[in-house]
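Feature request disguised as a bug report, sorry. It would help if multi-protein outputs had a clear separator. Right now it looks like this:
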Amino acid sequence: MTMTPLVAPIVSDYETSSDLASLLVRTTQDDALSVPAETLRLSCKCAHCTRARFDGRFPETFPGIAITEIGDLGYGLNISFSDGHNRGIYPKTYLLSLAGR
């Protein structure tokens, strides 16, 4: 019996949607995934957002939030949003898990 090794998908390319409301992610397995900007903003794990959650000050929604800039750090993306937040770094494996929700 031949066993085929399981290979986890890897982010190969990304871009914002034309309306800036989603991050479009392509993987090495030719998957095309979409992560809404609001999901990304709500999922930020930077120190500022983590503290705001701990203090009960983190919003439950970010209606109309848009992606304004993306910086590729190799292992992850630094994503900036229309509310001025630009501290979030999203490891590429984390992005894939958010796309799978």
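(second protein starts here, but nothing in the output says so)
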Amino acid sequence: MSLPTNPGSRGKIDSWHERIIFPFIDFEGFNPFPNDDDGECGSDIPIERLP
């Protein structure tokens, strides 16, 4: 997850105010909604900065 400062002259991000590098997560066989049988799409996942 990144918060870029300003894009460079060609529009490519070359510096960041803050960058959070996540470790590798293996999602093989992961089912986030095992009981979702109603066919509804979408989800709400809150994202908050830790103190």
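Even a blank line would do. Unrelated, but nice: The two ends are 17 Å apart (CA to CA).
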